User: Fold this.
Amino acid sequence: MEHALQVEILKELMQQLDEGKNIDAGVQYRMPTAAYMCPEIAAQERESFFRKHPQLIGLSGDLPEPGSYLTRNDFGIPILATRDKSGGFHAFLNACRHRSVKVASEARGRKSVFMCPFHGWSYANTGDLLNIPDEDHFGAIDKSCHGLLELPSVERDGLLWVHPDVDGQLDIDELLGAELAAEFASYGITNHAFVGEKSIEMNLNWKFANDTFGETYHFGKLHKDTLGRLYYGNNLHLKAFGRHHRFVTANHGIDSMREKPEAEWNIARGTFVLYHLFPNIQFLVDEQTATLIRIYPDETNPGRSITRISFYYTPEAIESVETEQAEGTSISDVYDYEGRRGSLGGVEASLEVFYSTVEREDYVMGEMQQRAAETGMLKEIIFGRNEPALHHFHQNYREALGQPPLEPVD
Assistant:
């Protein structure tokens, strides 16, 4: 992110803190609870948002070297992503061309040849069909026409994109827009190495899970003993990029900026910067660390979802973590840290934050919301003037499904 933009955002947040005022959208909206429980809406979402829409499946650090591979099974289409010997990124339908069995079952690893466990057909990491056992028994087949089905895929500025439909269109410039694409390029995400992951599967609709990341109103209440010890809450800078947006909120580290010349201000030391990428991605990123949060619906139950969280550090951040651990820094220090997010304690501290705040606090609230919606008695909830990211999420979802916009509260 350009330094002038960092200064602009930090100044706005300082002003909100000084005046005791949060962001104000000037309107409240009624949100129908049917959106979180209706099977017909859920089916539309799976088709429109997950099977017919480009998916961000990971970062370049998930495929760190030639021969690396990655599998994904979260959005109805089994995906095999590979890096070939020339460093090229590929994505395939993870299905043998003989009888459609997966050719790779592990989540990640390194191999140049994938063999179907059913009959032993083998494929290169470029997708080419290499060998058919007992081909004289099976019958001749044109191997050049029976490689793994390749899906549209693009690696751009450290992000791995795949379209789940073999005939789908994948235009990153159109998907992100020039401004957001340039902002991502500025972070140098290609240097972020995968260091760990966590999954959360709970009884809340995927949009309730997504809503968790849409406001700071709850920080000082729900998170008063966890994240609320680090972040102020009730402050927000929001910037929309079409259906995507940037969400920035201040931690206590912002106070140190006031004592420094603007040339030394660093947004990573006073905030967290989170990007919502339509439809299901939350992405926290700075020049040293990144956290990719992918939220998916349960295919059989609208009231259940799974969240995949992956953590990435630069080599410099990994070295810093190792030094801190050698000096005796503990996980418990994470909530007293007022500097750069994601440093102290390494990935263990990141996992602890997501367990204690997202899983045990935010998503527990989401499960309560889900149960109330499913009674059928609570027809709507309200999004406040201080929750414009939630307005943005849901107006875009509804527009994409051809639904009417949210109605304002009279």
User: Anything to note?
Assistant: The domain at 55-169 is CATH 2.102.10.10 (Rieske Iron-sulfur Protein). Residues 330-344 have pLDDT under 50 and may be disordered. Residues 230 and 317 are 20 Å apart (CA to CA). The chain has eleven helices and 20 strands.
